[in-house]
Specification:
Layout (H helix, E strand, L loop, with lengths): L7 E4 L3 H13 L5 E4 L5 H7 L4 E4 L8 H11 L5 E5 L4 H9 L4 E4 L4 H28 L18 H13 L6 E4 L6 H12 L5 E5 L5 H9 E2 L11 E2 L1 H4 L4 E5 L6 H13 L1 E2 L8 E2 L3 E6 L3 H6 L5 H7 L2 E4 L10 H16 L8 H9 L5 H15 L5 H10 L11 E2 L3 E4 L2 E4 L7 H15 L4 H8 L3 H10 L1
Parallel strand pairs: 1-2, 1-3, 3-4, 4-5, 6-13, 6-14, 7-10, 10-13
Antiparallel strand pairs: 8-9, 11-12, 15-16, 16-17
Helix pairs in contact: 5-6, 8-10, 10-12, 13-15, 15-16, 17-18, 18-19
Length: 470
């Protein structure tokens, strides 16, 4: 742990006790201390200096520790107080904890537990300090760095709130976890975080999905010459390439367990070993991780480590899917039409309200990336007056996904927006029809029940019950 910015105040009337605490904390790297042997000076010292943690004896001449504890909790409730005393009785311990003590220890103290308690109290103090700072920044009315977000085309309030949150955490060195469906723009968000952090190093992006442990380790940490067959020269890893910068790890939910352990060590200690080397290297990189999977579900199922999840989840950003921010569709369509027409050197086609209305009803399983591809395809294949028809065919045609409107059955065929479904023999039962469309919806969205339920016009819980009853 780094030496705290605000000192630790130790209050005990015995000089040798103060010196022993000082030695224990120094060995733990904690040197910013104020030693107080007169309890009557304690409140004055608190007025003069902002402290992070207080170590407090109970039995002292002058003002007792019990009285001081109550005074401290009334005037400085944000400061964790660790009571260290020779008074060994349960009622005293209970009373202290009820009066707001963070921890209670008996003399003589166990040095390991003593240091651990102080470090936990420091973490609590600085985390709450950071939360208060973030609150002030997040609830400010205006963005201070609009230019940083210029590549993210949006007018959506939820996205604007994300931008304010990114500004608030820009100075933090802690990891950031970005979640959201495929195609929502997680990489753009990560780049914005990097630009706002004013880090001097590079922004380096790597997709870790599908990498086995050796490939993951070699990519991130590099290797020493001779580390494995074919390693004729040493190789620097991406952690070193992104030194003093940002390393963006996409598809983090697909990491093997052994790779998760190595990433955890990097996050906890800022340390790593290149393949084939027993010399530890220090890291100065900021980690941003992203996934389109349900990371909480992966953690509960044991596929993703709890300790790694909590290390990554200090700053969390969830990007809403395009179907939940349809106010962005008109400006995104306009942006992509301009971009496609310029790059393809085609006349800029016009877009009418009917097409926007159709797009608003579409679920966009591929999100913004899918919309961009759709626009590029329409501009390249159907310039001019045919553009709108191309867009409509992309959404409603048999080639593409699905319509938001359910199909209707006739005695010979089913049609909805160009989708044709036929049958032979007897008219299918309602159960057969239901199973067919549930299966089709699930295939279209890659097994995502939430999207399938949205297509079918039912709740996810209803869809789950249908699956369970099959």
């Amino acid at each position: 742990m780094k030496n705290p910015s605000f000192p630790i105040l130790i209050i005990d009337d015995e000089e040798d006790i103060l010196l022993s605490y000082k030695m224990v904390l120094h060995r733990s790297g904690l040197n910013n201390l104020i030693l107080c042997h007169d309890s009557e000076d304690a409140l004055r010292l608190l007025q003069e200096s902002k402290v992070s943690v207080i170590l407090l004896d109970l039995v002292m001449p002058g003002v007792s520790g019990k009285v001081l504890l109550k005074e401290i909790q009334e005037q400085y409730p944000q400061i964790p107080v660790i009571v260290v005393t020779g008074t060994n009785d349960v009622p005293t311990a209970v009373e202290c904890m009820q009066n707001g003590a963070y921890d209670f220890m008996l003399k003589p103290v166990d040095n390991v537990r003593f240091s651990s308690s102080v470090k936990r109290a420091l973490d609590k103090f600085y985390l709450e300090l950071e939360v208060e700072s973030l609150k002030g920044k997040v609830f400010s009315q205006k963005l201070n760095h609009k230019d940083v977000f210029r590549r993210i085309i949006t007018a959506n309030p939820a996205m604007h709130a994300i931008f304010k949150y990114i500004e608030a955490i820009s100075d933090s060195l802690k990891p950031v976890l970005v979640t959201g469906e495929s195609g929502v723009g997680k990489d753009l968000i990560a780049q914005a975080i990097h630009r706002l952090s004013h880090r001097t190093g590079e922004y380096v992006s790597v997709n870790v999905g599908g990498l086995d442990d050796t490939a993951f380790s070699d990519s991130l940490f590099g290797h020493k010459k001779g580390a494995f067959t074919g390693a004729h020269t040493s190789r620097k890893g991406l952690v070193l390439k992104a030194a003093n910068g940002t390393l963006f790890l996409d598809e983090i939910g697909e990491l093997e367990n052994s790779s998760q352990v190595k990433l955890l060590q990097l996050l906890q200690n800022s340390e790593y070993y290149p393949l084939g080397s027993d010399i530890m290297k220090k890291s100065s990189v900021k980690i941003i991780a992203a996934t389109n999977q349900d990371i909480e579900r992966l953690t509960k199922s044991g596929k993703f480590r709890n300790d790694l999840y909590y290390r990554l989840n200090i700053h969390r950003i969830h990007i809403p899917p395009l179907r939940d921010r349809i106010d962005d569709i008109p400006i995104l369509v306009d942006h992509f039409i301009d971009k496609a027409a310029t790059e393809l050197q085609r006349p800029r086609p016009k877009i009418n309200r009917q097409i926007i209305s159709i797009l608003n009803k579409y679920a966009f399983p591929g999100n913004i990336r899918e919309l961009e591809s759709m626009i590029y395809n329409a501009v390249s294949m159907c310039p001019g007056s045919e553009f709108g028809e191309c867009i409509q065919n992309s959404i409603l045609g048999g080639d593409m996904k699905y319509s938001a409107s359910p199909p209707l059955l006739s005695n010979k065929s089913t049609s909805s927006g160009g989708i044709s479904i036929s049958y032979t023999g007897n008219i299918p039962t309602l159960q057969q029809v239901e199973e067919f469309f549930i299966g089709e919806a699930m295939k279209k969205v890659g097994g995502n029940q939430t999207l399938a339920a949205k297509i079918l016009g039912i709740s996810q819980s209803t869809l789950s019950r249908r699956f369970n009853s099959r």
